[in-house]
């Protein structure tokens, strides 16, 4: 099939079927598994866990895994790859190979769709995530390349998700539904269901200007960014800038905050005066307040109560955002933050790469601190079969 594949779905299916992961690929998969299971475990008592009790395992694990917005991100595609592909693999008995096949497809589809797709308001984790979850599940189920192409096409009608959901239950739920859609499509294909593989190409033309998909490079080109703060990736850099460069600033003495950055770097930050913890995760103004007020902006910083603190509300009102038009990507340019203090001084912080970015990978200490924050330090030795059993006990789901 590799030599005769003509549609994008067939080419992706052949690539996934033929993938032979390297040691570096497997190391990435290992870190993705641990990170995803840890952030899912951290949300086991969340509202999302209660809301999803009637969903399938893949949907429930993905939605709960994403609700804290602490899961990893693939920057070239602006997609949360692992929170879709890890649950899809675990729910269908797959391991690292299935994860890497789906993750590679999601990375490539999302990258091909490009920044313009994200900038128009699509949630790439869901749009490219449903076909990618279909590949993950297809590989886990042992489907042929031909059957996998049908699974991809069967997932296309369910490939959706928009950024208007950010700051609501809808964001995590649409991620869960994307994972479930892919698993369902793969199981239908396994049962003999067919669909025209050209459906993916038609869909790509409708939502992404008919882009070409690049199959070269490692399993996940560009690697994965690991979050160290439980909020939107667009906030990792401004939070880190203040914490690293102005760590001893007294929040009470701040009289003005000016942020200069590119428009693309704040694309998902829709909530300027948030009143809930979920909305605070998508607010540049609140993230700066939390960075100034809290020793470490962690789970406690993104509760409804924390967002509504009078001290936080005061700081939010002091923020002025100056945007340079354009840009592509959440790390385009740099975050340039200037404070005006009560004594008239103007300390300044500038940062291009936050800790956890692929070019600035997290240290062992930072990873250990994240696991500890998730109450998941004892998961270090977890393997794929153990992870499925762990999540199955922690968050049992209904049959798909």
UniProtKB/TrEMBL annotation:
Residue span(s) of domain MmgE/PrpD C-terminal: 229-374
Annotated MmgE/PrpD N-terminal domain residues: 63-201
InterPro entries registered for this protein in UniProt: MmgE/PrpD_sf, MmgE/PrpD_sf_1, MmgE/PrpD_sf_2, MmgE_PrpD, MmgE_PrpD_C, MmgE_PrpD_N
Pfam families registered for this protein in UniProt: MmgE_PrpD_C, MmgE_PrpD_N
Transmembrane residue ranges: none
Similarity-based family: Belongs to the PrpD family.
Protein name, per record: MmgE/PrpD family protein
